[in-house]
Fold this protein.
Amino acid sequence: MRRWQIVKCLGLICVIFVLFQFFLWFHFPSKGDRDLPTYDVKQMVKKVLTVWKDLEDTLFVIEPEILYKILEQENYSDNEGRCAVFCHITRKAVTFGVFGHRVAIPMVLSKFRRSGFAAVDAKEDNPDSHLKNPGSSPHQIITHIFLQDMEQPELTIHVVVFYPRSGFLWTSQIQMPTSDLSFGATAGAFDIFETRSITIDGLLISVPKSIRHFLHMKQNSHFLECNNDRAKMFYTQYPKDETEEAQRFQRKARQLLVKGKEVLDNLGVRFWLSSGTCLGWFRQCDIISYSKDVDFGIWIKDHKPEIIDAMERAGLPLKHVFGKVSDSYELSFKAGEVKLDIFFFYEEGDTMWNGGTDASSGEKLKYVFPKFDLCWTLLLDIRVRVPCPTQPYIEANYGKQWDIPVKSWDWKSNAFNVRPNGVWPKSEWKEVIQVY
């Protein structure tokens, strides 16, 4: 028995040794191996472009690793006869893009399959189908294509299909993304962009016209679809207000949202839906008809002094200024009986907060939120940002019962995250409490 245990131990040691060797080989290749491409990406790209050349529209490279290398090689002359980009790509998947409204995607799949490629597609319900045909079955569209050549089965060409939506380009999330893929971990929203042709490593390829802008968009592209099922459940329990007064407010609120967005976009100031406007999007994919205002959030680091003048030039006169840029800053603008409130957010430890000021007493209040990022979404067919994840932001402000409407909301006492923050000295009231 003891001899058998020794044999088993020796066998286990041998297995561990072999696995350790594989680990060293994969993670610490020899000096000679480090200089060699893992896959023949150039050959694979050449084959894909050859198959694609007779199709209706351009296939363009969007793989970040390739685009960054192209930027590094801006002064590279192709006549030097060296492989400067594709021969240094070691990814198992290389990503291209195509505009889905310009090419028949099923025909693309068919052609690649006839050319000897293994081609797999990912489909998704058209996110706009419920708007065009309410109550009908959702129409499915192809959103991603995965191509493999039998000569290099370890290498995948990933084609992301961009679809136009409300003035931007949308890409879908892959249900089970892998770390090898540069796109698909989330849905994406991109500004509409053009492509251009360049010659790299002897291959004529297409890339986004502004590579730097595309890479910046990619880093900030996360898109959240409004939860229409949640909205339907909400309106089943609390029927939508269809009165003329409610519809009139929603029309004016949408106009104000468009105008405020235009001003801030032109200034390059990032904003997001905050307070009741964010709650309306999250809960019912709509503007809350009884809220009577539109609420934006802006990080104080993105503040620009030109905001007030730009809003007034756009026909939105200043209603009030509370606080100061260094503390509890808040702006409000008038659009008839509807107003646009802009709350500026400050970072403090692991939280974010915006301030409030009681104009009658000088009392300062602080509304505390967990830290958040920004994601794109659609509200009333307008592309805007929201905090993400959104639910912790909503619960911080409105509590766990955010799904129950509260029509008599008191901004000083009802908020779950409100905290006292001192009182403005009367000597500063002229500066920190300006009402017009």
Q: What stands out?
A: The chain has two domains: 36-223, 228-435. Residues 10-37 have pLDDT under 50 and may be disordered.
